Amino acid sequence: MKVLISQEIHPCGPEMLEAAGFEVRLCTSSAPTDHATLMRELPGCAALISMPTDRIDVSVLATAGLRVVAQHAVGYDNIDLAEAERQGVVVTHTPGAVTESTAEMTFALMLALARRLREGDQLVRDGRFLGWHPMNLLGFDLFGSRLGIVGPGRIGSAVAVRAQAFGMEVITHSRNSGMSLARLLRESDIVSLHCPLTEATHHLIDAATLRQMKPTAVLINTARGPVVNEADLVEALERGIIAGAGLDVFEREPAVHPGLLECTNVVLAPHLGTSTIGTRARMAKMAAANAIAVLRGDPPPNRIA
């Protein structure tokens, strides 16, 4: 049986599949594989190892012989789960593999904003560093600040552990626990988003919710881009409604709202939350293990639907 991998992944994944006796077909473009290419390569494959950038719709799921879509990610908002159930296609993902690296990326953005690293780096590169000065690029302390975590699941909880080590106070909001979102926004010095993208969380952060934040507060998003209305965020940053933002994901990736590119109080990263060698290896192994289990007729370790 053939397995299609829609983008190049850590080699341990294809090696596992080949060792299990499956033929691997790999898309190797440096950019996300477009839907037409995916549809051209998929016929004859019993499994697809998909990426969050792939649109897994009825045309993909109705492909003859397809038995499993093994998502190489935790999130799966790109997959039509109802259609997968109708077509009898098993869907899996890689929970747990990305927790620690995404939590670390959250703190990287937090620290970069707090200590104004983007501006400092540019100052040095421009030859404007004249030596130490007591009032140069003053930032804010993480120690003693209040961190509001929206979505205290695996990743949010890992962020909370790190925050406590930094001497921060942690408050949380979720659908079923913690304080109300409005109160969390009012009381937080830093708001960090870790909720999944659903109909309920699409544009959860918009003009109205941004106005509930402190003018000295900053927003961190390592969850999904469309959780934030980028146009509203740009306006809030330009008008001083909030003090800054750190973004690893964007509403219309790979496009970025041009206003964000002009803001000096924003740190932008190209979706690097899980980009470590160890995490990519764990993700590849989990996706391969899920695909192998289904193709062998066994229950997959990480089934979604």
UniProtKB/TrEMBL annotation:
GO terms for cellular component: cytosol. Belongs to the D-isomer specific 2-hydroxyacid dehydrogenase family. InterPro entries: D-isomer_2-hydroxyacid_DH, D-isomer_2_OHA_DH_cat_dom, D-isomer_DH_CS, D-isomer_DH_CS1, D-isomer_DH_NAD-bd, NAD(P)-bd_dom_sf. Residues 3-304 form the D-isomer specific 2-hydroxyacid dehydrogenase catalytic domain. SUPFAM superfamilies: Formate/glycerate dehydrogenase catalytic domain-like, NAD(P)-binding Rossmann-fold domains. Residues 107-273 form the D-isomer specific 2-hydroxyacid dehydrogenase NAD-binding domain. The keyword NAD applies. One of its GO terms (molecular function) is glyoxylate reductase (NADPH) activity. It holds the Pfam family 2-Hacid_dh. This is D-glycerate dehydrogenase. Keywords: NAD, Oxidoreductase. It comes from the Bacteria.
